[in-house]
Amino acid sequence: MNENRLSGTATVLIRRAAEDLISEVNGVRAVVVATADGFDVTSAVRGHQEPSRIAAMASSIAAISLVVSQEARLGRHRSVTIDTDDGFAVVYAVPGEHSDLIINAIAGREAIIGQVMYRLGAMARHVAELEAHN
Hints:
Layout: H1 8-24, E1 28-35, E2 40-45, H2 51-71, E3 79-84, E4 87-94, E5 101-108, H3 113-132
Antiparallel strand pairs: 1-2, 1-5, 3-4, 4-5
Helix pairs in contact: 1-3
């Protein structure tokens, strides 16, 4: 089991980063940070999204992407994007010293995928730094 070992301060800072992303990037409906085994650590949600369900889903997707990247010998997996008629989901892996985390963003079709990916990458680096100094 990959339990959440983040301090309360780190969790608050990560939640603030999730809230910033959801408020600053048009079309983002949810940002959920979860443990690798699918438990919601913190989240920012607009609308009727369920963070616990998103966390569980992201865990499964990240696990599949890990296997695919290993089997294809493509190096460490970083992210998976699921493109749909009404938007997209991005699952971003954040390997850490103490625990591995996953950031999942759900966005509507009005969101610009490049902008979401750029901001998720920056958030992932921030989360990794907080986790390392935990």
